Fold these 2 entries.
Entry 1:
Amino acid sequence: MTTSRRDFLKTAGVAAGALSISTLPDWVSKVVAAEEAAANGVDKDALADVALSTARKLGVTYADIRINRYRIESISTREQQVQNVSRSQNFGFGVRVLYKGTWGFASSRDVTPENVRRITQQAVGIARANSVYQRKRISLVPVEKVVTSWKNAFQKDPFEVSIDDKIQFLLALNQSAMKTQGVSFVSSSMGFVNEQKFYASTDGSRIEQYIVRANPSFTVTAVNRSTGDFQTRSSLNGPQGMGYEYIEKHDWKREAQQAGEEAVMKLKAKPVEPGKYDLVLHPSHLWLTIHESVGHPTELDRALWMEANYAGTSFITPEKTGKLQFGSKLVNFIADRTQPAGLATVGYDDEGVPGQRWHLIKDGVFIDWQTTRDLAAMTGQKKSYGCNHADSWGSISFPRMPNVSLQPASSNTSLDDLIAGVEKGILIYGDGSYSIDQQRYNFQFGGQVFWEIKNGKRGEMLRDVAYQSRTTDFWNSLDALGGEATYELGGSFGDGKGEPGQSNAVSHGCPPARFRQTNVLNTGRTS
Amino acid sequence: MLLTEKDARTICDKLLNYVKADDASVGVTSENYGHLRFAANAYTTSGARENVSVGVTVWIDKKRGAASTNEIDDESLKATVALAEQLARISPVDREYMPTLPQQTYKPVNGYAEATSNISVTSRAKTINDVITACEKAKVVGAGFHQARGTASASATRNGNFFYERSSLVSLSTTARTPDGTSSGYFLRNHFDVAKLDTARVAHEAIRKALDARNPRVLEAGDYPAILEPQAVADLLSFFAFTFDARNAEEGRSPFSAPGGKTKLGQKIFDERIKVYSDPWHPDLPASRAAQGGLPAQKIHLVRNGVLENLVYSRFWAKQKGKEPTPGPVNNILESSQPPVALEDMIKSMDRGLLLGRFWYIRGVDPRVALQTGLTRDGIWYVEKGKIQYPVKNFRFNQSLIELLAPGNVDMIGKPERVGSSEGQGGNASLLPALKVKKFHFSSQSEAV
C-alpha cells in the first residue's frame, strides 16, 4: 500500500472544512509535491515486509518498523516585530527488534529497501551484542492484530491556514497586551505539529495515524526601571490536541490585555507572608501539579527502577497497588488516551495497542499503573494499557504518560463556592516555577497570578508565592472540587523523560480544587 | 557515515544556487548517534540513529523566512528553499536583520575522535557488562546510560562565508542503589574521545557513594556551610557563561540589571578569585570554532577578579548600542585565580557543614537574583571537624546563584574538571571546580532516595 500525503488527506478526511489541495497556494503545492515525490518512492508496506522478514530470518521474537513524517511550524513575535517564521519537516524510519529477550533499535532518514534491510540488520546486531550479557530476558504481552488508519479529532488543519493570518493574529495579541501603561515587553508564539505515522509489526498489524497539535503562548513583562524590579505574566491556556480552531475559539486578545494589567499589578502587589494557607488552585495552575505529582509516580517503569538513572523511581511501589491512600475520598484520577483534544490521545500506541481509558486512583486509593507490553509482562499483567511512545522515527519507543485527569465533583460547585469556604487562603492561576524530587514526594510550585482569600472572598493581589508539600499530604488535604462546568484541560507540549531524552505531549484536565493548610513560601525572600 | 567537507560543501552550494532571495544562510548537519541503557542490573534499550538535517534562512527586502528538512535530494532541497522564500515574502520586515557574514578565517579546533563517532557495539556491550558486574559484586542495583555521538556540520552564507567542523562526545552515567532502596549514588563523566572516558571510575564512584550513603540521618533544613563537588556545581552552573546577555541586562530583566536602567558591568559582584570565560581551544573542552552568526570564536572573559567584565552582545544589539558583537561564548569555564584546593583539603578545613554530590530538578524561581530551587540527590554527607561524619537525608534548596558566588560567600575553589549536568544527561560539558561556600540555603527536607 503506497500512501501519499494527498491520498492520506483524502482518506482521513483531513481537508474537510479547510482548503482543498487544488486551491492551495502555489508554495504549499510545491512542498506537498516534494513530499509526495519522496513518498511516491516509498511503499511503506513493501518496506515493512523487508524489515520484518529480515528480522525474522535473523531470529528475532518480535520486530516493528515505524515510518514517520513530522511537520513543525513555528512563528514567534515580540511587540510589533516578527522574530521567526519557520517550517521544518523530517522523515525517516526506525526498526525495533527483540532478540533473545534484548531490545535493539536502529533508524535512518534514508528510506529505501536496501537501507531498511541494512538498518534492520544493524538493530539485530545491537541486540545480539548486548544479549551476550543480558541478565533478565524481556518479553511482551500479546496484542490483537489490527490493520487500520486513525486521525485525531481536529477541524482545521493549521498547516493549511495562511501564515499571514497567524502573524496578524499574534501582532494584534501583542498590541492588546501593550495597552496597559507600564507594560514593557510582550512575546508571543504559535507552534503546530503534524505527525504522520505508519507502524507495522511481526504481530501482523499495519496502522496509519495522522495527528495535529496546537501550541499558542505569550508572556508579558512589566519592568520598573527605577527599582530594577520586573514581573511577568504568561498565558493561562496551554497547548491542546486540536487544529487551528483552538486558536479561533478562545479570546486571546482579551486574555493578553488582562495579562498586561496583571503584570503591572504584580510590580506593586503585596509580598506574601510565609505560612500555612488554604489554597484554591485554578485548572490553569493545577494541571502541572497533577502532571508532576500524579502522572509521573504512577508510571510503572519508574516503580520498577527502570528510570533510576535519570527521571528517578517512584514513592509508589508495586505492593502498594490497591492499598495506598493517595488522596482524600474526593480524588479520582483517570488515565485516558481517548480524551478529545488530549495531547496524548492516540488511536494506537507505538506497539499497536489501542488507546484506552482507566482509573489510576479511585476514591482516593491508588489502584492501577500506566503500562506497556514489556512492563505488563514483567508484572504478570495480561494486557498493556497502551502507553508506548516514541517522539521521532529516530527514537526507540518506551513508556510515556497518557492524559491523566482529575475528575470533577458531581455537584455544581463553582470557583466562588470553593473560595467561600476559605478564611485565610490564596487563589492561584497559571503555571510557574516547578520542581519535584526524583521519587515524586517533595514538590514546590509557583504560579502566574496570586490572589489573597480573606473570609471567603477574593482580596488583593499577592506576589512571590510558592507552595511546598509532599504528594500524599497534599492530595489528602483536598476537601472540595469544582463541578463539571469548571473542568478545563491544561497540558505540556514537551514533557521530558528517558535516556536519550524524549519529548511527549500530554494533557491534564481538572476542575478547580481546594487544599487545606499548605506550606507557602515567599520566594522573594529566598525562604 | 558523517558528511565529508566536500559533501557538505556540495549541499550548501546547491542550496545557495537555488536561493533567489537577497541574503541567505544555509546549514547542513549529519549525525551518528548510539546509546545503551541499563537498569535493574540488566540491559534495557539500545539503539542507533543516522540523520542529516538541512536548514535554510533567507531574507527578501529584510523579511525573514526559515525552513528545514532531512530529505536531501535535489527536489526536496529546492522545495525547502522555496518554502523559506515564500515565508519571507509574507512576513513583515525583520527589524533585527543583520547581513550575513562574508568569508571569515577560523582557527581549527580538535574536538573529534573517529572511535567515538563510530562506536563499537561489542566493546560498548562489554563495558556495560563490566559496570553491571561491579554492581552485582557490590550487591547494589545498577542503572545507567552510555551514549556516543559524532556530528559533521557546515554553514554557508550568500555573502561568501563557509565553515565545516566535526565534533564528538561520549558519556557514561551510572546510578547504584542498595536493594532496599534506602541509598543511592551517582557519577557521570564525558569526553570527546572514547579512549579517554574512564568508565571504571564512573562505576566505582557511583557504587562507593551508594554504599557510603547508607543509613542517612535527618537534619533540619536551614542554612549550612557546604562543599559542592564538581557534579553539583555543574548541575547548577552548566550554562552559566551563556546567561550574560547584554540585551536582557540593559532591558532590565536580568540579574545583571541595575536600578535606573543600568547594568552591573564593572562591579565586583562575585568573589574576587572567580574567573568565568569561554575558550574554544581549551584542550580539555574544545568547542565550536564559530560563535553567533558565524563569527570566528575567540577566548572571552565574562568575569575576572570577581568583576563583571563583559556582557554578551548579539550582532543586532551591538549595532544598536555601538558595540562590537561578542565572539562567544562557545563553552563554559569557571576557575580560580589562586591555586586550586583539593576536595579532601576542603573537607579537612570544614568545621561543620554538608558535602553535596548532585542536585536535581533545578528550576528558576526568581530571575531577578537567579534564584533556583531543586533538590539534593544520590548522596549528601554531614562533615564536622574536618571529617565526614555520616550521610544525611535529602533537602530541597532555594538558592540564588548570584549570592552563592558573591564576595564573602565563597570559601575555597577546587581544580576545574570536565563535567556535564546530570539533567542534561552528560550531553553538555563544562570545566567547573568543586566549591566550598559559607552558606547554602535548604528550605525543606526531602525523603526521596
Entry 2:
Amino acid sequence: MLDFIVKRLLQVIIVVFLALTVVFFLIRLSGDPTTLFLPPDAPREQIEEYREQLGFNRPLYVQYGEFMINAVQGDFGQSLRSGEDALGLVMQRMPATFQLAFAALIVSMLIAIPLGVLSAYKRNTLFDRVGVGLSVVGQAIPNFWFGLILIFIFAAQLQILPSSGGGSISHMILPVITLALYSISRFVRFTRSAMLDVLNQDYIRTSKAAGATTSSLIMKYALKNSLIPIITLVALDLGVLLGGAVVTEVVFSWPGVGRLLHQSLLNRDFPIVLAGVFIIAIIYAVINFIADVLYAYVNPQIRVK
Amino acid sequence: MFKKNIAAVFLLSFLFLAACTDGTNVDSQDGGTESSENGGQQDSIVIGFEGDAATMMANHDVNYTTDTLIRNIYDPLIDRDGQTGEFRPVLAEEWENIDETTWYFKLKEGVEFHNGAEFNAESVKYSIDYILDESNGSYYRSRWTDVEEVVVVSDYEVEIHTSRPFPSMIERITEDLLIMEPGYVEEVGVDQASNEPVGTGAYKFVEWSRDNHLKLEAFDNYWRGEPSIKQAEFRIIPEFSARMSAFMSGEIHLFKNIPVDSVEEIGTDQVGEVPSSRINYLALSNLVDGPLQDEKVRKAINHAIDADELLEAVLNGYGTRITGPLSQLNSNYVETEDYPYDPDLAIELIEEAGYSPEDLTLTLDTPSGRYPMDSHIAQAIASQLQNIGIEVEVQVNEWGNHLEKVQNRETGDMFILGWGPAFEPQSTIENLFTQEAPYSSFYDEELEEKIFETNALFDEEARFDGYAELQHELVEKAAWVPLWQQADLYAIDESLDFTPRVDEKINVFEMTWE
C-alpha cells in the first residue's frame, strides 16, 4: 500500500510539473505583456527598459528555469499589473470558487442520484426516456448560454434574483444551477447505468424472490453497491468544477479564481495565470490521488495492478 | 432512513456553504431595485463596470478602468471641462510656465485628506516622486522622464523643473497625476495603501472586493462641498449581457459602452451619448514595401472608402466624422479638406500610379471588440475597396496581439486603430506620424522635422500655426483614412442626472438623483 501511495504521489508531482510547463510555454507564445501595461506613447527605449526589468528579454529557457526554481519554493512572482504577490491574489479567490464548486456538486448529487436511480428502476418507461433525453440535452448546452438565459429570465424579466456578483445566497442560485447543469446530466446517466448493472445481478433477483420491498431493494442492496463508482465520478467532477468554472464565473461576475485567470490571461499577467494553474493542477491531482487511494483501500485488486 | 440522513447532510452542507458568504451585496441589491421605483429618495448609486482596477494606488497603473475608479477617491491638480475638454483648476489654483524648463503651480489651501491630513506642496512632490522612483514600478514613469525635480517653494507653491522643454506638462498633469497622502503611504506602506487608498477626493474608500465591487462613501469635508450621493458602488460585471440585464432590473443605474446595436433594447430615453475624444482611423502604412508608399494610391483609397456610409450602416450613426488627424476636441484643431467618395477618381489615381486596381492585394488588420464594431468596419472597408477591384485580406486579431503587431510593425498594408483620449495635438501627431511611433506606420522625413519643430514651440500663436499647417499637410499627403470620433454610449437610469463627459471619466460627485 505504501508503495502504491508513493507512486501515485510521484504522479501528482509530474502532473503539476507538466501542467506548469505546458502553460508556461503556451502563454509565452501569446506575446510580450510589456506593451499592454505601458502607455501607448511610451518610447521604444522605455519598453526595452521595462522588458529588461521584468526579465522578458532573456532567453526563454533561462526564464523557464528561473520560474521553476522559484515555483518550487512557492514563489510565483508579483502580478505585472499591480505588483502584488501572484499566489496571494489567487489564494484570496479560492474560497469563492470552492463555495461555488461545492454548492454545485451538492445540488447535482441531490438532483441527479435520485433521478438516476428512478430512471434505472423504471427503465424503458416514458420517465426513463425523458430523463435520459434531458440529460443528453443538459450535457450539450453550453453553460455561458444557459447562464445568460437564466439571467435574462430571473434577473431581467422576473427580477427575483440578482444577475451578478457574490455575497449572499440569492447571488449563488443562478451560477450554481448553471454550473450544476453539466454535472447533473453526467451523474444521472452514470447513476442509471451503474444501477442497471447492479439491478441485473443475481443477488437482486434473489432478494426480490425472498420478498424484499422495492424501497429496501433499491436503498439497501442496489444503491449501496452502485455508489462506489458514483463517488469516484463525483470526486473527479469536483476537480472539473473547481477548474472549469471560468465561464460561469465570468458570466455571473463571480469573484473566484476563474474570473481572475480569465482577466489575467487577457492582460497577459503571466505570474497570476501560472499561480492559478498551479493551484488548480494541484487540487485536481490531489483529488485524483485521494480517489485512487480510497479506491485501492476499498478494492485491493487495484493495488496489485 | 439512509436516504433521509444523506439528504440532511446535503442540506446542512449547503446551508453551511451559503453561510460562509460575506453577505455584502444584499443591501446594494435591494437599494438598486428601490431606486427605479422611487429615485427621488435615493442617495446611493451602483455603477456597472466591465473590469476592475488593478490597484487602488494612484499614479501606478496606466489603465482607463483603474484611473476612472480611483479618480473618485483622489483629486488631480487639474482636470478637464466635461463637455469642452478645456483645462480646469482642481487642487492647483493657478499655473504658469516660467521658462522653457520650469513650471510653477499655486495650490489650493484648506484641502483635507480623508485621514484628516492637510493637502500641501509636499503631497504634490511626493506624488510626482512616486512616479519617478524606479523602484515603485509605476507604468507612468515613461511619460515623466523629462521631469528633473519637483521643488517645494512654500506650503502651497511648487515648481517642476524639466531637463528639456516639456510643453505638454499640463496635459501630463491632467491625465496622469493624482495626489496621494505622503504621511499615510509612509505609515502603512505601499501594499496597504494600494488596497485602502486615502485621497482628497469626493468619496472615501469603504471596501474593495476584487473583481466584485468597490464601495465608497461621501467625504463630508470635501472641499467642493458635500457630495449629493452618499454611497457609491462600482460593481464589476464583465459580460455585456449580464450588465444589461442588471441595468434592466434596476440593480445598476449606470454603465458605459453600450454596443450600437443594443441601444434600441435599452431605449433611447435611457441612453446618454457624447462624442469621445477617442478617434478611430484606418492606418495606411508607407513603411512596409508595397503600393501604399505611393501617395496617389493612398489618396485613391481615401476616395474609395465612404466613411459616411460606414458610419450610418455599421455604427447606426453613432459617431462623429473627422476629416483630418485631429478631432474638434483638440486644442489647435483646424478644419481640413475631406476626400469625397469617388470610386472613379480612385481608379484613375491608381492607374496614374502605374497599377491597376485588380492587381492590388492589400492586407487589413483589425482588432475584435476593442472599438465599436471594429471588425465589422474592417469587413465593410474591404468590401468597399473590392468594389473598385482591390483585393483585401482581413486579418482579425485579439486585442493584445493586434497592439503587439502594430507596435512591432508586423501588420501589413493597413490596420484599424483608435487613439485617445486625445485633447492636444502634440501627443497625437508625434505618436502617430513620426518614424519612431508605430501607431500609423506613416512616415515622411520632411513632415517629421516640422512635427518636432512645432512641438518645441512655446509661443501659442506659432504653435497654432505650426499644427494647422501639419494638419493640412497630413491630409494632403493622405497619411491615413480618418474615420470618426467614437460615440461613448452610456445607459443611464431615468432618474439619474448625469451628463457623459468627453474624457470618459465617471465622477460620482457630478451626479445627482432627480
